[in-house]
Amino acid sequence: MRLDRVLANASVGSRTQVKNMVKKGRVCVNGEVVLAAGRAVDPNQDVITIDGEELAYSEHYYFMLHKPAGYISATEGRHDPTVLELVPDYKGLFPCGRLDKDTEGLLLIMNDGPLAHELLSPKKHVEKEYYVEHQSPLSKEDIKAIEKGVEYRDISYKGAKLHILDERSCTIVVQEGKYHEIKNIFLSLGNKVMYLKRIRMKNLILDETLKKGEYRPLSKEEIEDLKKLSI
Ligand code: URA
What we know:
Layout: H1 3-9, H2 15-23, E1 27-29, E2 32-33, E3 48-50, E4 53-54, E5 62-67, E6 94-96, E7 104-110, H3 113-120, E8 128-134, H4 140-148, E9 149-152, E10 155-158, E11 161-166, E12 169-174, H5 181-187, E13 193-201, E14 204-205, E15 215-217, H6 220-227
Parallel strand pairs: 7-13
Antiparallel strand pairs: 1-2, 1-3, 3-4, 5-7, 5-15, 6-7, 8-12, 8-13, 9-10, 11-12, 13-14
Helix pairs in contact: 1-2
Bound molecules: uracil.
C-alpha cells in the first residue's frame, strides 16, 4: 500500500497533510527518511516513524464508506459481495451497523468493538438520517403517524423526525436502528420505499466527495466526536 494511504488510514492527517509530512522528511521507513509519498510499504512489516515516533498499528481504524447498492453489510457473504471488499484489508474490520443490500450511503467500517456497541445501542439515541424516495405522496395523517410512531407486523417504531422535500421524497431521522426500520415505517402506511440512502449518523455527514464505493479514513476530530455519547 502507498505510504501516504497507510498514514492517512491511521488518521495521522488528511492525504494532503501526510504528503506534506513526507515531503518535509518527517517520515522514516525502517530507519530511512522517505521523501516519496507513493512509496510502497507493508503496514504489517515495515516500521514507520513520524518525527521519530513509531506509527502504532495496533490502533483502531475508522473509515467512512459511501456504500453502493449490491453489497451486504457483513464480514462474509455466501453469494453477495460484502462492504469489506471496498475498504483496506486491516484485521478485524467490520461494518458498524447494517444497511440493506439495496440501501446506499454512509456506513462506518471500524475495528473498535466497544465504540460500535455504544453507537448501535438504542440507549444512546444516536441519530441516523436517511434520504427517502417513496412510491406515493405522504398525506397529513401519514406524516403525523410517522412523527408519533407506527407499528408494522407487531413491531413498534418510535416517532421519527420528517422533512418533506417534495411529493415523493423526504428526509427522516430515526434513533432506533431496527432491522428494515425505514422500509417498515413506510410499509405500515401502505407506502413503499423506492430508494434509500443514509446521509448522516450522529454528527457525521456523508462526505459527498466520496463516490459510491469509495471510502476515506475519519479524521481525529470526527473520531473524538463519535466517542462523545450521551449516558
Ligand atoms: N432502514 C431500512 O429499511 N433499511 C436500511 O438499510 C436502513 C434503515
